[in-house]
Amino acid sequence: MEIQSLWSFNGSHNSMTGPLPENIGNLTHLIEIDLSYNKFSGGIPSTIGNCLALNILLLQGNSFMGGIPYLADLQNLNYLDLSSNNLSGKFPPFLVNLPSFLFLNLSSNNLEGELPVTGVFSNLSALDVRGNPKLCGGIQGLHLPLCYRQEPKKAQRKPLKLILVIVIVASFLALSLFLLWICLMRRSKKQPQAVSTTLNFHPQISYGELLNATGGFSSENFIGSGSFGTVFKGILSSGGSVVAVKVLNLQQKGASRSFMAECQALRNIRHRNLVKVITACSNTDFQGNDFKALVYELMSNGSLEKWLHPEEELEQNSLNILQRINIATDVASAISYLHHQCQTPLIHCDLKPQNVLLDNNMTAHVGDFGLAQLLPKFNTREDINQFSSLGIKGTIGYAAPGNFS
């Protein structure tokens, strides 16, 4: 485990045995680990918590024992599957606080105790804990038994002196808190109140709403298609906003991973030259099939590809030199933001004219983050050179160049 520049390791569906090596934590650049369906045993090494760039951890279908290791430092972890093992014990608190979770599978183990109801444990579609008969509590949709809480025994009569001391201490604390509250109230009246800001959360949307918005995903509303999905024009019933709905083709290999990558990439980035994501839908259709879609702000002038290489040479579809310079500047501004101004640097991996969209004012917006990669920040040039061994991603074969001249 000395190949520190390794970013992805897939050893699934083999017959590897024995414990997982402790020095797996030395692979600090790993983004994905898949060791599912082997014959590993022993405990899951806590050193995995040192792989700070980790997005996906798949260890299902083995014979791991013991508790879930401490992974609280994996702030980019969005897919964790530990199902079909022999794990035991209670749920560690850090699982509730990890901010990037998209799916957590802990089914078919021997976990016990009360299940939390916050964080990923509050999302029924992002959680699987079936096959753990000693679990209780959790949200209503999990249908787990209620947790039994033993009633505290009646307190024995305390000596009079001890009760007096407790009353005096409690009174002193109450008086101190009251005086502190008065001081804070007086100070707040003297200072001007700051303007409160409201966080704009992505609205929830269902499969049925998207079906109605796009006219049943009709051909009349068809905009285009890509490697992992098809894009339709839609009008949302709530507010009448005109949007672009990208429906993922989940039969296509890599579509689900593309959906998760795009959600992760667009979760915290905001820039005038990036396509604005309005919301996402991860649900089932009316036949019970998995359904995933992303809803974007509609770019009325389509992709840069259609303007650079129109199917018909029409004068109104030609770009003048000033528009070409502005579009090139917009794209460069977006890429500079992704590489240098994000909290975690992000590489688009598929920049091409088809993924540059133009709005009413011919302002360019970079879109399609299905192949994007979140990268840890590096301290030295040697670190950067080691990570440059990432495999080539994006369009395979010939891709039309983004020629603005």
UniProtKB/TrEMBL annotation:
Its cellular-component GO annotations read: membrane
Q: Which Gene3D superfamilies match?
A: Phosphorylase Kinase, domain 1 (3.30.200.20), Ribonuclease Inhibitor (3.80.10.10), Transferase(Phosphotransferase) domain 1 (1.10.510.10)
**Segments traversing the membrane:** 162-182
Q: Does the keyword DNA-binding apply?
A: no
Which residues make up the binding site for ATP?
A: K246
Q: Where is the Protein kinase domain?
A: 217-405
Q: Which UniProt keywords apply?
A: ATP-binding, Glycoprotein, Kinase, Leucine-rich repeat, Membrane, Nucleotide-binding, Repeat, Serine/threonine-protein kinase, Transferase, Transmembrane, Transmembrane helix
Q: Where in the cell is it found?
A: Membrane
Q: How does it sit in the membrane?
A: Single-pass membrane protein
InterPro entries named in the record: Kinase-like_dom_sf, Leu-rich_rpt, LRR_dom_sf, Plant_receptor-like_S/T_kinase, Prot_kinase_dom, Protein_kinase_ATP_BS, Ser/Thr_kinase_AS
Enumerate the SUPFAM superfamilies for this protein: L domain-like, Protein kinase-like (PK-like)
Recorded GO terms, molecular function?
ATP binding; protein serine/threonine kinase activity
Q: Which family, according to UniProt?
A: Belongs to the protein kinase superfamily.
Name listed for the protein in its UniProt record: LRR receptor-like serine/threonine-protein kinase
Give the source species. Answer: Forsythia ovata
